[in-house]
Amino acid sequence: MPIKNTAERGITLETIINISGLVKRYKELTAVDNLSLSVQKGRILGLLGPNGSGKTTTIHCLLGLLAYDAGSIELFGEAMDSSKSHIKARIGVVFQEVGVFDELTVYENIDYFCGLYIQDKQKRRQMVKDAVDLVQLQDFVKFRPKKLSGGLYRRLNIACGIAHKPELIIFDEPTVAVDPQSRNHILEGIQKLNAEGATIIYTSHYMEEVDQICDEIVIIDQGRKIAEGTSDSLKASIQTQEKIRFTADPLSEAVISKLKALPGLLELKIDERTHNLSFEKGEGHIIRLVRTLQEEGVSYDALTSERPSLNDVFLELTGKALRD
Amino acid sequence: MFKHTFSYIIKILLRSRQLVFWSLVFPVIIGLLFKLALGNISNAGKFEPIPVSLSSEIEKEGDFYFPIFLDNMEDEGVFKITEAADDALLKDKKVVAHIISPDKVEVNSPSIESSIVESLLNQYLGYREAAIRVMRDFPNTDISKLLERQSLIEDVSGREMNMFNTYAYTLVGMQSLYGYAWGLTIIYLYQANLSVKARRNAIAPTKKSVVIFAATLAAWLMNMAVMAVNLLVMRFILNVGFGDRLIPVLGLVALSALTGVAFGIFLGVSNRRPIETKIGLGIVLTMTMSFLAGMMFAQMKILIQRNAPIINQLNPVALVTDALYSLYFYPGLERYWLNMTFLGAITIALLAGSTFFMERKNYVNL
User: Looking at this predicted complex, what is its ipTM?
Assistant: First the structure.
């Protein structure tokens, strides 16, 4: 059964994060440029953007680690700064780089970081156990981190960030260099945490992940917010609404001309035997294409049709692919 | 929070194999190597009479007391005197100095022995000058009392001078400064612009001053512990003498261990160079200070003391070495406390400087 988030469960929403006009400069470089966003309680917000787009800098400003040049940041309805321990106590962070102690076991690592938030040992023991269960590291609690595989190592990193059961959890690219199995574990874990009531910010440059788990998405590039909305609304906002692909031997000029004349065609790209056609919103594009190919006697295979992806959104908005 | 941080940091430091090796095992290995290299000259420090030649023209000087002074020196075993018409013995390096008159002495090259000869002759000249002045101003004074035979070199320490001891003292100084590694390690856990672990600690709702104090205390105890172990190895395996004043020795270990940790913390927070560079810098600075304190060349510290004593006063390794030396050889504690004062001032300066760099609440860069 799919896990329902807070919003789907009909819980009243309150604003947990409110960033307004955030500007962060590193000398000449403007890393975050007038960024505004807000996150409602129980939602998963995806911060999507290529490497170096300002996602991590935004997170560091949000946590009070980095001084910023302009704007304001409110968490749980209060202006955030690094001295506000009562706000910090409600936040958990999973940083992009793994930050655990090689000298401590898996259990000790989680207990150490959890202990920075929870003083009661009895309570902490249960929380550490829950975190271990969540990331499925039960068989490795006595292992030293260096003995773990890359995926397990990342899962330990997550457990250290969330063991104290924070209300707001920030995941900064948690699946970088992770195998598909661990990646799925991680994404499922995040959805479970959200289902238990945590509000989540998830930064990534992997659009599939953001598409899969986020309720709302903010796309940023070069420190600027270039679009925001749900996955569906973002995809609906661009011109390309259907992408059709097929493989065939090189087509004659006459056939290519006929394809280019198909109603609603936005772009035709040919890469050796692969033909990519982008269509604007409309119906019957694939039927008309198939009919044309049959009329022209073109032998084709591997014909597919798909909805636009977030990468298409990014491509159309910035002129470059998300992973460039 | 203090207890939680302290206990985990102790655990982390104890399990840091590289740290333990470099802090504990490395100085022990160096100590053993020193023992192997210097063990057979451990008695070379015993005071042997200094061979000097005495000009046969000395009688013509007309100084009645000078030959008596020289006889005394020979009786005390300070000089071994050979009469010579010229300085041939000196040229053949069979003697250290050729004495022509109380104020005229030839030496081949500067050395401790030639310095002792010069210093004793200067002291004699001082007495003679004083006597002449007294006789001139107070003709009825009993001059024999003034020039009564005095023991000019008196060993009041009751200890045997041992070259290996002084090398071992520099080793203790070096080890205390090697404690920079403990300080560097802990500050990388709590200064958010230095590591991800530190960033994790920084976002927790803990008081930075409390956790850093707990971690510093843990690092200090670790450095003290490895120093204490090394001292035991030196005392009971390498037979290094530290005297019988245990509490001042322990006080010195405690303070110098803190100096080392403070040095590491300062090294960590004062600049943004990579950790590898800071580790290298720590080693280079520690070894340089050890060299200047006489670890590789025993005369170095004396040369510095003569020409630029401020360097010795600012060099923690030299201060530790000198404090141990003074505890072993000197009956009083004045010199020990002077060294402790300088060491304390350096430690406070390092900690104050580190606090200045750490005080910021958030960072321009991470």
Answer: 0.80
